[in-house]
């Protein structure tokens, strides 16, 4: 799949220009001195949650009154770009706040129809290109990208003139789709987080990232909609009534849970020598630290980790001190290639102890998934006991580039090969089984 955005079916579908009502100076002065309790609320309001998620609301008090009626509610959620709107210029990113048009002429009428039917209409969009840093140099509170986004979205809202909310995730964190924090924030804002109040089966999410040929990803269909448990349609299916197209499902975490639950967990590791050096070989996110804490730490192995000690020389120094003190050591590093592993084999020879290798062959997709799950759940000790943050994508590519499968000919006494099998509590399973990447 490439990163090309789908073009709208019509090239010239621009919204009508907004007519701004002139306010006389006398009325302006009177409005200025009107008590806050008597002033009408602003049509469009903005707030930012955790310096990450931008939230814009239009006529929200009307929507809240409908929610309070006690009827079971439905949500119609949409991606923004290439779903509701497209750029007039044809560029990937808008050149200014006026560089937008409806993705299809049917979009505004369909959104109004949904509102009339009682749906809560919202936008849930990843907007990593927006900077939330203040434009201090320009003397403005908002960055240029944030200012353009706010003005553009306000114009969309005012053109529609129906209760409407926009949620935009600007960071690679728990708010970013397919993660569900943005959805939960929306439920809380609309008082929909009460058990039994929301009709998930009759709700819907519409987005262009659907895993079709040419889509930039499948974060909307396979991932986000599946995570929150609502039906999904593409813009073509929802607005143009086109038939669904085939999709590619490259990775489904639930498949690994199902496979693991049907197998006996027969992972064993035993100490073979009074004092020995054990090194891991495995990608970031492959489960090295988890394996250490579960199987090696109870056997008395001291842990040496470069993320903590910051350099290989420091790791070698600390490991030697442990071995000289007749303590077994586990080296919890990636040790991707034979050249890196040779440092540890040389240390084993120097200290006259056997060296063993634990090789974790966890597939790259699971490694990235594990990393994302861990980073997005810092408060779940069963998932992230060391409060680790998200690794840069280059870390996984760098490991694959340097990787050489370990062999006995390098000097290991033995090599224990570990294939990934999910293990965890029901709570951990629920979290790990969602889409996170």
UniProtKB/TrEMBL annotation:
Residues 1-20 are annotated as: Disordered. Pfam families: AAA_33 (PF13671), PNK3P (PF08645). GO terms for biological process: DNA repair. GO terms for molecular function: ATP-dependent polydeoxyribonucleotide 5'-hydroxyl-kinase activity; double-stranded DNA binding; polynucleotide 3'-phosphatase activity. The keyword Ribonucleoprotein does not apply. InterPro entries: HAD-like_sf (IPR036412), HAD-SF_hydro_IIIA (IPR006549), HAD_sf (IPR023214), P-loop_NTPase (IPR027417), PNK3P (IPR013954), Polynucleotide_phosphatase (IPR006551). Keywords: Kinase, Transferase. The keyword Secreted does not apply. Gene3D superfamilies: HAD superfamily/HAD-like, P-loop containing nucleotide triphosphate hydrolases. It comes from the Eukaryota. PANTHER family: BIFUNCTIONAL POLYNUCLEOTIDE PHOSPHATASE/KINASE, BIFUNCTIONAL POLYNUCLEOTIDE PHOSPHATASE_KINASE. This is Polynucleotide kinase 3'-phosphatase. It comes from Emergomyces africanus. The lineage of its organism: Eukaryota, Fungi, Dikarya, Ascomycota, Pezizomycotina.
């Amino acid at each position: 799949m490439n990163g090309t955005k789908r073009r709208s079916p019509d090239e010239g579908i621009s919204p009508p220009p907004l007519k701004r009502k002139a306010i006389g100076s006398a009325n302006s002065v009177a409005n200025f001195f009107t008590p806050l309790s008597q002033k009408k609320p602003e049509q469009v309001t903005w707030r930012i949650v955790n310096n990450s998620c931008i939230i814009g609301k239009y006529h929200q008090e009307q929507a809240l009154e409908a929610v309070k009626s006690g009827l079971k509610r439905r949500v119609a959620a949409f991606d923004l770009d290439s779903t509701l709107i497209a750029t007039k210029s044809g560029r990937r990113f808008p050149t200014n706040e006026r560089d937008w048009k409806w993705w299809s002429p049917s979009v505004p009428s369909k959104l109004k129809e949904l509102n009339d039917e009682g749906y809560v209409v919202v936008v849930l969009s990843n907007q990593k290109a927006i900077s939330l840093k203040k434009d201090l140099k320009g003397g403005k509170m908002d960055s240029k990208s944030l200012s353009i986004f706010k003005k553009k979205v306000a114009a969309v809202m005012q053109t529609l003139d129906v209760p409407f909310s926009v949620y935009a995730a600007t960071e690679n964190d728990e708010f970013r789709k397919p993660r569900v924090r943005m959805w939960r924030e929306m439920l809380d804002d609309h008082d929909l987080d009460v058990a039994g109040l929301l009709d998930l089966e009759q709700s819907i999410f519409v987005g262009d990232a659907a895993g079709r040929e040419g889509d930039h990803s499948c974060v909307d269909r396979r991932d986000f909609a599946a995570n929150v448990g609502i039906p999904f349609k593409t813009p073509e299916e929802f607005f143009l009534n086109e038939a669904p197209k085939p999709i590619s499902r490259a990775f489904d975490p639930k498949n690994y849970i199902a496979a693991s639950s049907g197998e006996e967990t027969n992972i064993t590791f035993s100490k073979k020598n009074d004092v020995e050096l054990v090194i891991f070989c495995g990608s970031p996110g492959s489960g090295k630290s988890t394996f250490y804490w579960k199987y090696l730490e109870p056997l008395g192995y001291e842990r040496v980790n470069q993320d903590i000690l910051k350099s290989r020389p420091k790791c070698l120094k600390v490991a030697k001190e442990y071995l000289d003190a007749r303590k077994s050591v586990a080296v919890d590093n990636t040790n991707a290639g034979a050249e890196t592993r040779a440092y540890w084999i040389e240390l084993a020879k120097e200290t006259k102890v056997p060296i063993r290798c634990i090789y974790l062959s966890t597939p790259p997709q699971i490694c990235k998934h594990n990393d994302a799950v861990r980073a997005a759940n810092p408060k779940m000790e069963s998932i992230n006991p060391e409060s680790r943050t998200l690794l840069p994508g280059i870390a996984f590519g760098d490991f694959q580039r340097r990787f050489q499968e370990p062999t006995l000919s390098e000097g290991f006494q033995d090599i224990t090969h570990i294939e990934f099998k999910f293990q965890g509590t029901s709570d951990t399973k629920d979290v790990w089984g969602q889409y996170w990447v």
